[in-house]
């Protein structure tokens, strides 16, 4: 299994189930789109998406939250570009990317519990964290799955 996660040769050979590859393309697109929203929305998506009541904050606090969301968007853009490179050129790394996704969303959930913030509603990301933890594990399993050939028995 380690060879499937850390291949000796990194190339464009993908051996897992195609559905995991197609969902990875979708995750890549969502990651890039989400990053651009955080970078370029006037509130960084903090209030308009994450329902953080920044309009009740001081001007300095509001500016700080918006900058942090924008910087988070930049980090997401870098990851999205990396996912895009993997999608186009280095598909043998897709199983490893699903492990990274699992870790990211698990840690989002844990950190959110450790350092909760006040919101006026349920942010889509709050729900997505739970879904993506399970989803990334399932897609990881599908990405490393290769049926046994008659010659391998």
Most strands sheet: none
The count of strands amounts to 0
The parts where pLDDT drops under 50 for at least 5 residues are: none
Mean pLDDT: 93
Find the structural class using helix and strand composition.
Answer: mainly alpha
Estimate what percentage of residues fall within beta strands: under 5%
How many individual helices?
5
Secondary-structure element string = HHHHH
Ends distance: 17 Å
How many distinct folded domains? 1
Instruction: Characterize the overall form.
Output: elongated
The radius of gyration is 18 Å
**What percent of the residues sit in helical stretches (DSSP H or I)?**
55-70%
Care to give the gist of this entry?
By secondary structure, this protein is mainly α.
Describe the structure.
By secondary structure, the protein is mostly helical. The protein has one domain. It contains five helices and no strands. The chain has helices spanning 2-5, 18-40, 59-88, 94-114, 124-144. α2 runs antiparallel to α3. The longest helix has 30 residues, at 59-88. The two termini are 17 Å apart. The mean pLDDT is 93.
Attribute tags:
mainly alpha, 65% helix, single chain, 153 residues
SSE inventory with pairings:
Elements: H1 2-5, H2 18-40, H3 59-88, H4 94-114, H5 124-144
């Amino acid at each position: 299994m380690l060879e499937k996660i850390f291949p000796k040769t990194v190339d464009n050979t993908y051996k897992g189930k195609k559905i995991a590859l197609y969902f990875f393309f979708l995750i890549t697109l969502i990651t890039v789109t989400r990053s651009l929203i955080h970078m370029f929305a006037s509130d960084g998506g903090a209030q308009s998406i994450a329902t953080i009541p920044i309009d009740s904050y001081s001007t300095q606090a509001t500016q700080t939250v918006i900058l942090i969301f924008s910087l988070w968007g930049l980090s997401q853009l870098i990851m999205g570009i990396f996912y895009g490179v993997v999608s186009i050129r280095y598909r043998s790394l897709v199983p490893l990317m699903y492990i990274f996704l699992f870790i990211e969303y698990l840690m989002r959930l844990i950190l959110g519990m450790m350092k909760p913030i006040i919101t006026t509603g349920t942010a889509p990301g709050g729900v997505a964290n739970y879904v993506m933890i399970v989803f990334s594990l399932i897609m990881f399993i599908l990405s490393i799955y290769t049926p046994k050939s008659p010659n391998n028995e």
